[in-house]
């Protein structure tokens, strides 16, 4: 006789380990089946059907989604304490509906209801000792069967889905995963429909879950999925706030990965609680303890009520999702959260989802910061990529260019290798760093430690710049922002890093510059690029001198700059330039001839020196 499967379900679908292309294809097929089924259920709810017609449509949807040949829906009658056959796909008249009743423990369906877990017999179910024959259902003709209980809140019995197939070994793990997701969803929908619940809210709820399922089944990168999950939970549950927490894969510590809607005050609170400096003599508890206390106690005191669902797949605890709102959460709300949690948990452990797109995701981070967008999507992207937005951060802009001294000696491959070395160094400085490379341009979001992490990073990059110049003859230029302690300041930091790069390359003494070290030069640069100087008479004369230098290969403009900086001290200027005083005198005479400037009047030296710096900055030859 066929025996009841010993590994029959414990309420969670056992996900197969994806080891080859076939497994990935089956996982993708399962995901597509779930997406299609949810869309069809959305449509059925929106049609506002009579309950009998709605239940009939449900069993058809489940049958098609699980590759079954037939499906039955038994609903629990709490007054009579029996399962009543309410819908079926077989038969024309279906006169047996509402007449077949099953007690708890009676037959395979009653056994699933009693145990509150799936019962699967994949070979000769009619020979199983628990099988009970109902002649009108013709179940003795099936070679495989699966009985899936519908449970509201994971424990209140709503009914049982019965799936049947004419071939043995039909119901694999992928079929059962789809069936259980649909059973969990239908438990809430049927319970609500039977009690006259609001059809409009159910339709909206199902529509959102269908979109969420599509996202989880897609090949989109993780940051989009995590952000979608948090936003879907807000929409479905009408919540004021949802927080998604995942366990760090290395340490197991909880990390906030998504917040919806975006709230800078919550992010700032999380930053304080999880920073290394947050512990005090009064509260020296670990950062993880402080974070959990904040999410489970302090936020509910501020926002009203909290409902949480763990993200558990098999024996693995992946994290949890918490939602907050003023009014209480109903049983249906908890059911919906469980559905969202199961879908996310399966997606997190499913290699078929291919949560890649890291390079594309990192590009989006810096594009959004450049547009001054620091919202829940930006935060979700960054945290999903591994950045800890609760720690001190700096923004970095860098580029690798060919040194003017090397010229044609440097090959394009040298620039590529140097760029890769820079990226490796940045990521090695802190594993949670986010980098993006476009051509020879490098963007970085780097976690640093107080109080001198930004300066240590500057030192590392400067050392690398020296090494790259010696090894490949390339020039690594970089700009580093001031330290960021609030996530809302990240766009400002990106602007600081960009200014430190661009202005430092023109007026800085080093190719690697920190924003704070360029305060004076910043003001001078902004003056230099002011269009008001385009037609300044002195600037125009100095442009003539610059053009003369270009044609003759002379150094008259730099000579004038040194002479003015030396306040007319010829000996000092000659020593600075490394030339004889007679050579200096000859250059100064040539400057007067070319520009017509009077260099004998000391009163004109300060504005003239400013004009020289403006022309120098405007026309600083940047290596290419």
UniProtKB/TrEMBL annotation:
Give the species.
Longivirga aurantiaca
For this protein, the record's SMART domains field holds:
GAF
Indicate the segments forming the GAF domain, all copies: 50-200, 221-363
Known InterPro entries for this protein? Answer: CdaR-like_regulators (IPR051448), CdaR_GGDEF (IPR041522), GAF (IPR003018), GAF-like_dom_sf (IPR029016), PucR_C-HTH_dom (IPR025736), PucR_C-HTH_sf (IPR042070)
**Name of the protein in its database record:** GAF domain-containing protein
Q: Where in the sequence is the signal peptide annotated? A: none
Q: What family does this belong to? A: Belongs to the CdaR family.
